Structures are given as structure tokens and as C-alpha cells.
Amino acid sequence: MNLETILKDEFGYDTFRTGQKELIEMVLAGKKAMGIMPTGGGKSICYQLPATVLPGLTLVVSPLISLMKDQVDSLNEVGIPATFLNSTVEWHDREERMRYIETGAVKLLFVAPEKIVNEEFYSWLSQIDISLIAIDEAHVLSSWGHDFRSSYLKMVGPLKQLPGKPAWLALTATATEQVQNDLADILDIPTENIVKTGFARTNLTLKIERGVDKMKFVLNYVESHRNESGIIYAGRREDVDNLYQFLLNKGFKVGRYHAGLSDQERHQQQEDFLFDKIDLIIATNAFGMGINKTNVRYVLHYTIPGTIENYYQEVGRAGRDGLPAEAVLLFAPADLQLHRFFIDKSLGDDQYKLSLKNKLFKMSQYAGTESCLMKFILDYFGEEDTQPCGRCSNCLDNREIVDITSDSQKVLSCIVRMHQRYGKKTITRVLVGKDDVANDWRHFEELSTFGIMKDNTLKQTGRLIDFLSANGYLKSSNGRYPTLLLSDKGLQVLKGKLNVIRRKEEEIPSEPKSIVADGSFDVDLFEKLRKLRLELARKQEVAPFIIFSDRTLKNMCELLPTSSEEFLNVSGVGKMKLEQYGEVFLKAIAEYQSEKVSG
Questions:
Q1: C-alpha closest to that of 126 among 164, 155, 89, 173
Q2: What's the half-sphere exposure (Cβ side, CA atoms, 13 Å) at 80?
Q3: 254-257/296-301 β-pairing
Q4: pLDDT tens for each residue of 42-81
Q5: Which residue, 178, 196, 214, sits at the end of a domain?
Q6: Pairwise CA distance, residues 552 & 78, whole Å
Q7: Rounded to whole angstroms, how far apart are CA atoms 306 and 304?
Q8: Cα–Cα distance for residue pair 452/416, rounded to 1 Å
Q9: What is the pLDDT of residue 508?
Q10: Do 452 and 538 fall into the same domain?
């Protein structure tokens, strides 16, 4: 059995991505395995390809109902019979699908975790010949995961008792070392069967814009990215509605998504985005789980997310086709207060709230760091000895570097004199010498560091403290009211054994530019093929990326195929795609070439 031949014939790809073949071979050998791969890293191939080879059914458990239909449509499009069963399927359709599955004609069945713990459904499932159990978004299984869902844990026992000893495959894109270990214990996966391909996204450029006029920045950015697909995340429904109305009035094809809208409106907005009827959607974090739209070129965060996990998962929705994409965070320190408010109002216990505050502190460090943004994230997920990416806004920041050791020592000395018992707000006011923290029972005015930075504003001093925290000179205590403490690195600075350098504070001019139009292919032909794809998608009532991804269209523009044999060389074109679309796309390319020569 040649796996590369199956990959090309069924899915249209010439080579496996890192880690895919290794996982597939373990699954085909009947083992339990786990893949930790970045969003867009090709996780689904790791169970879709084995499903075409294994004799029985591949059961895919996923919490993402919105993703199931896209996956099923994509599989059926290339001739691999698949279906799904979840709460959106009416009972008569459910019965019909179950009878069809019983015949053995279906190769993949997608279900939500709640279905597994349903006794009636589980009894039926136990009679089916299952060769592989694939658990997508497996981090949800872990109590350390960032989106805990109890039905996921409850289903593990019943799945382990299914007859036939099927192979197991757990997949996730966002798992810290702690979560990985937790998953391995829960699912009985041997350490040697865990494949980690790294979290780095080489096609994704991370950027942070600090202190900008957010509304003005958004307008300029989306104007420079017209006809490109994007997502803007905002922390509050009010922000979503205001941005939506603002951009709608400016003539953009824009939608919105948040929990305050009706189910029908949310569904319609999501469908319009998936089917390219709108270019841009503005949403709270309620949007995006399971969105498999491959041609999202940018993700803007109008408000900072609460955790690195959430942030990286959200930015991972850009560039899933492997083409260049951007993720821009518009950071204002005041946004952190919104998260603290939500954490304090949450129903979790003190331990849960504390874990969220610690994660928020790491997110604030990310927003304040001057080191490589991708490296910061990779360090967080436990990838050591990684190199700077060379393309993020910090790596490309060419401002003058200045020595700020003296000011840093003032801050660190003040924290020590305050016995490391206070948070950023109080420390800042003591350093600047504000009256409201003088002459009270704490007698801060008696400290030698009181007012030592009186020539600075509160904002400037606060940014310096953020910088020291983000770059490891300060750390945060645990507890309900976190305080700032000196790290070993900070102690070295205070003793004069280590200098602190920083980029000079000034505005970095940012000129947004189109991401797709990179000059490496004919953009006019690309647009012609996009329109053709859209026409075909609307006739077939499927999302355009189900037919071909932007990456495949770009490769057509690069190779300019003139025959069926050459069309098969396009990445993402297999035998079924050639039969369905080869003639019409070859004709469109030939017509364009002819017009270009005669014109």
C-alpha cells in the first residue's frame, strides 16, 4: 500500500506534511496515538486517509458542530462517503442515516460527544464495525484545557468499551505540556506514540499595534484589504455592533456574530461568511470554533483575548490554506480590566478564577514584550530553543535601542521597598508620587523611591512596568490579588550585574497592504478563477473552499495547466476533482491566456 499514491489520488496532494505520515502509519497499525499540530497543519488528513483504507467505520468525535457539515461536504466532494449525526439532524433524517451506516457504505461518521453518552445511541454504535476512533479538539478532555466540556470526559469510558479494539487518534492544536500529559493519561496513549510537529505557523505574521486610534486603524486596514476575507474579534457585543454599523456605512461587505443575535441571524451571518457573500465578519469569541474557511487572510483583535490559548486558536483561523496571512492585536492596557471584570463575575471557584488571572497575566506579557512574538508563544507551549521568526512586528521593529537600566532599577528598588506586596497600580502611583498614596497608614511618602519618577506620567511608568513584566524582570504572585515580585533576572538588574535595553518609545509607521497580491502570480487570473469557483459553489450550494482552496487557485495561476495531465499536477487536485472541474477551469485559464495575448 503506497500512502503517497492514496494521498494524491484521493486528496490531490503530492507529499505529506510533517507528522502526518507517522500518525497515519500508527493508526493503520491499530495503535493509540496523539497528534499535536498547529491550526492549518493538516490534522484531518490523519484520520481521513486511514478511513479510506481501513475496513470498518471511522468515528470522529468533535465538539464543533459547525465544522461537521463542512468536513462531510469536502469528503463527499472527493468521493469519500461521510455523514454526521448531531442535534441539527431531524429524527427522520437521523434514522435514514443510521440505516445507511449499518450497510457499511459510510466510511466516516462525525458525532458530538453528547451522542456517545446517550444510552440509546451508544447501544446502536456498539453494533457497528468501528476501525478507528478519532477525537478532534482533544484538549477539551483535559481539566487543564481552556474550554472544559464534561461530556468529553464522560464519553471516554464508553468508547474504551466498544468491541473490536479500534485504533485511537487524539488531535489538538493548542496544548501545553501539562495538557499533553493529562490527555496521555486519560486516553492511555504511550509517550512514544505522541507526535508533536511544533506550533509555529510560518505563513502567519503576528503584529501588535499599541496606543493607536482603534476605529481609524480598522478602517484603514480593511480598506487596504478589500476583497480579502477577514475576521475582527471584539470583547463586547456593543463593540461588535458599533464596528459593524461603522463599516457597513462605509460600504464594506460585512457581517456580525455574537450571542445577543437570534440563532437564525447568527446562522445566516456565518453562512454568508463561509459562502463569500461577505468579506468580513466582526464577532465576539463566540464565533469561529469549527470554522474551516481556508481563505481567511487576516484576523484583527480589537480587544485582547484572555489567554494565549484562545488567542492562538483565533489567529489560527487565518491562512489555513498555507498562503500568507496576518494577525494584528490592537492593544490598550484598559482592555485587561474588561477581562478581570468577567473573571470576578464568573461562577468558577477561587482556584479556577486564579488560573484565569494567571493566564491573563501571560497574555498581558505577550502584549508588552519586545522579543519575537512567535517565539513568545512557542515558549509558552513548551517549545524551547526556538529562533526569532524574523517577520513579526517586533522582529521588524527598527527603532533605536536605548539603555533603560537606571529607570528599571528605580522600579525594581521601589517594589522591594514596598516589600513586594502590591500590584502595578499602587507601585506606579508611588513612583510618580501621587498624593492619594501618600500620608495614609502605609506611609509610602517615607520611601526613598516615592516620587522618584515624578517627571514621568502614570502612563509612561505603567508601560515601563509592563515591559519589565513582559520581558521576565518581574513576575506575578499567585493569589486573589496578584502582586509584582522580582524575578532572578530582575534581581541581577538591581545588583548592577545585568543591563536592560529597550526600543525607544515612538510611533512605528504601519502601512497596511494587501496580503494576497504578493506579486508571485497573476492576480487578475486569480480573481477570474475565484469568480468561477463562486458561481459553481452557489449552484451546488456548498462553500467555495469546498471546491478549491485559494492555495489551489494560486497554484493554477502559477502552473497555467493546459491539459488534464498538467491539471493533476496542481496542489489540491485529485482524480475526482479533475473529473468534476478540470474541463471548466482549463477552459477559463485558456480563455484568459488568449485574451491576454490578443489584448
A1: 164
A2: 28
A3: unpaired
A4: 889 999 999 999 999 999 998 777 678 888 888 988 889 9
A5: 196
A6: 15
A7: 7
A8: 14
A9: 46
A10: no
Whether residues 215 and 275 fall in one domain: yes
Identity of the residue numbered 168: W
Claim to verify: residue 329 and residue 273 sit in the same structural domain: yes
Q: How many CB atoms lie within 10 A of CB 554?
A: 25
Residue type, 585: F
User: CB atoms < 10 A from the CB of 220, how many?
Assistant: 15
3-state SS record for 477-546: CCCCCCCEEECHHHHHHHCCCCCCEEECCCCCCCCCCCCCCCCCCCHHHHHHHHHHHHHHHHHHCCCHHH
Task: Assess whether 180 and 237 both reside in one domain.
Answer: no
The residue length of the chain stands at 599
Q: Is the separation of the CB atoms in 272 and 278 below 8 Å? A: yes
**CB < 8 Å & 24+ apart, contacts of 51-55:** 51/80, 51/107, 51/108, 51/131, 51/132, 52/6, 52/10, 52/80, 52/107, 53/1, 53/6, 53/28, 54/28, 54/131, 54/132, 54/167, 55/129, 55/131
When pLDDT is averaged across residues 320-327 and rounded to a whole number, the result is 89
Q: The CATH number of the domain where 109 resides is what?
A: 3.40.50.300
Core vs surface per residue 165-200: b (16+ CB within 10 A) or e: ebbbbbbbbbbbeebbebbbebbebeeebbbbbbbb
Instruction: Check: CB of residue 169 under 8 Å from CB of residue 46.
Output: yes
Q: How far apart are CA 558 and CA 584, in angstroms?
A: 18
**CATH number for the domain including 583?**
1.10.150.80
Predicted TM-score of the model (pTM): 0.70
